[in-house]
Write a structure and sequence with these properties.
heterodimer, A: about 120 residues, mainly alpha, 5 helices, about 10% strand, B: about 200 residues, alpha/beta, Rossmann fold, seven-stranded mixed sheet, binds guanosine-5'-diphosphate, binds magnesium ion, WH_DNA-bd_sf (chain A)
Chain lengths: ~120, ~200
């Protein structure tokens, strides 16, 4: 899938990732899963000038509604790990709200599956 | 609606790009798995309400702990793309479909994908059944319930379900459907079969 040139490129990518995430670690998996929904906090505190261009970009993408973490990564074309770290920082600082998916439980599953099934049938007959 | 500086050359997102009713939505996901070129991306594209997106995960130790950049050079790094789509089911549930390649070595990605997934649809090419073994093993290893969707590419003779079940060593109650991944209704029918099965499993 990857040629040998990609390999060199990725080391540079990693260093760049390190810089734009300010060396922070990956957040808790359950906190920012692929399908955690994220949006900008309604009462925007004044954005400090200290935000990096990438953080600014993430805030912009999140400013007009909810998107999943995966979608935010897809739209910004930043690596998923980097996006998760930055989103965690922005959430901690009060810029973003997150809606983690519900914890798996048999009852919740049943209701969700029923909803998905009737939704699919309503949509596609 | 979008405030602040623009996204550079990238066009700003439209209202339809956002999750409708996101403040009250519960997000769920289903995996669409299978070997290379079995039709995962096509399947997701046929049924997704958004233009399918993809994102990359870098598979290295540094990918898990970006503090540790010492000795990155020479370490096995590989980038894997996963693609995904979205389907708003109702004003309460939004469904994400994640296309996942079958390679066992992408452990981190598999863990991210499998965690909390409702189940998996395994796309199978009847002419390349052996290529599906590894993927089915992985799905079982992660404890996900699954259905088989046989992608009957044009001109392929349909293999009898019985022999396919035998070749893939399926349990008797594992659903097997045929599907044309390019066709929205056909893809939706395969998904419906999977979800009916998942529902029966939670009883
Ligand atoms: N005839 C036919 N071609 C298909 C079907 N599904 C996918 N393809 C083609 O098979 C190729 C591989 O499909 P793709 O979705 O990229 O596979 P992936 O690697 O699993 O994501 C593409 O050229 C598709 O156009 C199908 O149901 N019927
Ligand atoms: Mg693909």
């Amino acid at each position: 899938m990857n040629g040998p040139e990609d390999f060199e490129l990725e080391a540079a990518e990693l260093v760049r990732s390190y810089v734009i995430t300010k060396g922070r670690r990956l957040p808790d998996e359950d906190q920012l899963s692929l399908i955690t929904l994220v949006t900008a906090a309604p009462e925007q505190v004044q954005r400090p000038l200290r935000l990096s261009p990438e953080e600014q970009r993430l805030l912009d993408v999140c400013s007009a509604g909810y998107l999943s973490v995966a979608e935010i990564a897809g739209h910004t074309r930043l690596p998923l790990g980097v996006v998760r770290i930055m989103l965690a920082g922005l959430t901690e600082a009060g810029y973003l709200l997150t809606r983690p998916p519900v914890a798996r439980a048999r009852l919740a599953d049943k209701e969700l599956l029923e909803e998905v099934l009737s939704g699919l049938r309503a949509k596609f007959g | 609606m979008v405030s602040g500086p623009s996204l550079g050359e990238r066009p700003a997102l439209q209202t339809r790009d956002y999750v409708s009713g996101g403040a009250s939505q519960t997000a769920v996901k289903i995996l669409v798995v299978g070997h290379f070129a079995v039709g995962k991306t096509t399947f997701i594209g046929s049924i997704s309400e958004i233009e399918p997106l993809s994102t990359e995960e870098t598979m290295t130790r540094a990918g898990q702990d970006v503090d540790d950049l010492k000795g990155v050079r020479g370490k096995t790094t590989t980038t894997v793309a996963m693609d995904f789509g979205r389907l708003t089911i109702s004003d309460r549930v939004v469904l994400y479909l994640f296309g996942t390649p079958g390679q066992v070595r992408f452990v981190q990605m598999w863990e991210d994908m499998a965690r909390g997934a409702l189940g998996a649809l395994v796309l199978v090419d009847p002419e390349r059944l052996a290529d599906s073994f590894a993927v089915i093993d992985l799905i079982e290893q992660y404890g996900l319930d699954y259905a088989i969707a046989v992608n009957t590419f044009d001109g392929n003779p349909e293999r009898a379900e019985e022999s396919l079940r035998e070749a893939l060593d399926l349990l008797d109650d594992t659903p097997v459907v045929t599907c044309d991944a390019r066709d929205e209704r056909s893809s939706a029918a395969a998904l419906t079969t999977l979800v009916s099965y998942l529902l029966a499993r939670v009883g």
